[in-house]
Design goal:
The structure is a single chain. By secondary structure, this protein is an alpha+beta fold. The chain is built from 20 helices and 16 strands. Helix 7 packs antiparallel against helix 8.
């Protein structure tokens, strides 16, 4: 009975593995291509043994060992890439694409280009005296071609590093290929289509790619800060952003600028102020703070995060809900020094959600700054830190774009001066582009004491003004909300070099992110 079961099991195994049962396709393909009967002796069992050893030898050097091992385990270790793509020249095309990766800033050797070329040349020569000499070459070529395909396609299309693993304030879910995507690449029946699909096509990237070639020609070396900056920012442009809208507002932190794009057209461009750079020695100071729990030891870090979202609302005459960190580090000390600071700056104080009627009488020395029980809100109107407009989009960092009552900041060369949110230079122009129609825009203008563009609405405007200036009734300015047009994305990014009108623009690395990125990618360049 046991012998019968064993016999059945063996039969089932062999019947499921046509790779071991019939003349393998690789033998048919190569013998026909070279008109050489030697390849008809291709023994799948002997080859499989060689392949397994070669996989063990190379696995620690593969970029995606788990994916590649799983793929070949599922396909009985068959040399599918060589079978499908050697004779039709697609493996040579892979080699050619890799050789051209230097134009994208990469060192082609990271994709094993010389090894692939040597293996292909050896197979081309067709000088094997016995079939056993073929097995290690086919196994080596198969595994290295698979690794090169996955690594090259990933690096060119998605970038060589995952930015979320490098920067703790990078909150963009950049697209990266998962194991299913990588497996589908290996399963392809059209290798050239995979290679073409991996290429970058955006104008910004291609302009910078051309600039890299020009700088190399003029300088004769890659050892130059300008070329390094270009390579860094080509890498940034490879990170695929989850933006699917026609209109995008791009805030570029190092340029301290905002540009509103509609397709390739620019709707507006303006200066911005962004978050201040973290303190020098931030990491060590943070360790000290975590031990002491003393707020005096806490280092400042107001760097504006990198993120992607979609605008959903405008708050006109906004209320500023003052963050706990600012309350502890700034508001508390202002109130200690000047009992009337809060009322003079229209800042209301809340305790357990209830308004404190006379905050000027609070004896602040009775409260620990670390455990301050109060919440602070600055009311609408003149003096509000957010100015007259707040442009809102969903994000986990409570970041938004806003107006400011401090216009002098826009004249500074280094505009990394905010607490993290982005101050914009032309909020009214921005609001006009953001609202749905002219009617809404006029409503918004009247809320900030500006006459409507539509002169037929002047009576309504005059009534609003009269209500606000009525001395018999106390008028309290309150925020009002406006919906935004749908599908306007916001991208807060970080680019220190880009091409514009045939010339490369370079900007200072305001947050020192370039060196962090270079340390991660220089081994690939």
């Amino acid at each position: 009975m046991k012998k019968t079961l064993l016999f059945v099991a063996v039969c089932l195994f062999l019947s499921s593995c046509s790779w071991f049962r019939t003349k393998p396709e690789i033998a048919v393909v190569l013998s026909k291509h070279f008109d050489n009967k030697l390849y008809n002796d291709f023994d799948t069992v002997a080859y499989d043994s060689v392949f397994v050893k070669k996989m063990d030898e190379l696995s620690s050097k593969l970029s995606n060992p788990k994916v590649i091992k799983a793929y070949y385990a599922h396909h009985q270790d068959r040399p599918l890439l060589v079978t499908r793509f050697y004779v039709n020249g697609a493996l040579d095309t892979l080699k050619s694409y890799i050789q051209r990766s230097k134009a994208d800033g990469f060192n082609p050797e990271i994709f094993r280009v010389n090894e692939l070329e040597t293996l292909l040349q050896t197979l081309d020569a067709n000088k094997f005296k016995k079939i056993s000499e073929v097995y290690p070459l086919i196994a080596d070529l198969e595994i290295k071609a698979a690794d090169a395909l996955l690594k090259y396609s990933t690096f060119i299309k998605y970038g060589s590093v995952n930015p979320r693993k490098l920067f703790n304030r990078y909150y963009i879910a950049s697209k990266r290929p998962d194991s299913l995507k990588l497996d589908s690449m290996l399963n392809t029946t059209d290798l050239v289509a995979i290679l073409k699909d991996a290429q970058q096509t955006s104008k910004n990237y291609l302009d910078l790619k051309r600039a890299l070639a020009l700088y190399r020609d003029s300088l004769g070396t890659d050892e130059n800060p300008a070329i390094k900056a270009i390579k860094l920012n080509m890498e940034r442009m490879r990170w695929q952003l989850p933006v699917k809208t026609e209109e995008t507002v791009l805030v570029n932190i190092p340029d301290f600028s905002l540009t509103w794009f509609k397709g390739q057209d620019t709707l507006t461009h303006m200066n911005v102020c962004v978050g201040g750079k973290r303190e020098e020695g931030y990491a060590d100071k943070m360790k000290a703070y975590l031990k002491s729990k003393n707020l005096d030891d806490k280092p400042k870090n107001h760097e504006t995060p990198q993120l992607v979202s979609v605008f959903n609302a405008i708050q006109v005459n906004p209320v500023w809900n003052i963050p706990v960190s600012i309350a502890q580090s700034e508001i508390y000390w202002q109130a200690v020094r000047d009992p009337y600071y809060l009322s003079n700056n229209n800042i209301k104080v809340y305790l357990k959600g209830k308004l404190v009627n006379d905050p000027d009488t609070i004896q602040w020395n009775k409260y620990s700054r670390e455990k301050l029980p109060f919440q602070f809100k600055q009311g609408s109107g003149e003096g509000n830190a957010l100015g007259k407009f707040k442009f809102i989009f969903d994000n986990s960092s409570s970041i938004y774009l806003h107006d400011t009552n401090n216009k002098n900041g826009f004249r500074l060369a280094n505009r990394a001066i905010s607490h993290g949110c982005v101050r914009i230079e032309k909020p009214l122009e921005f609001a006009q582009l953001m609202v749905r129609d002219k009617y809404q825009y006029d409503q918004l203008r009247m809320e900030v004491n500006l006459p409507p563009v539509d002169t037929t609405r002047m009576k309504q405007y005059q009534k609003k003004l009269a209500k606000r200036t009525d001395t018999l009734n106390t008028f309290q300015l309150k925020p009002s909300w406006f919906a935004t047009r749908k599908n306007v994305a916001v991208v807060i990014g970080y680019f220190t070099a880009w091409a514009e009108n045939g010339k490369v623009q370079f900007r200072p690395d305001v947050y020192d992110y370039d060196e962090t990125l270079w340390e991660a990618i220089k081994k690939y360049m």
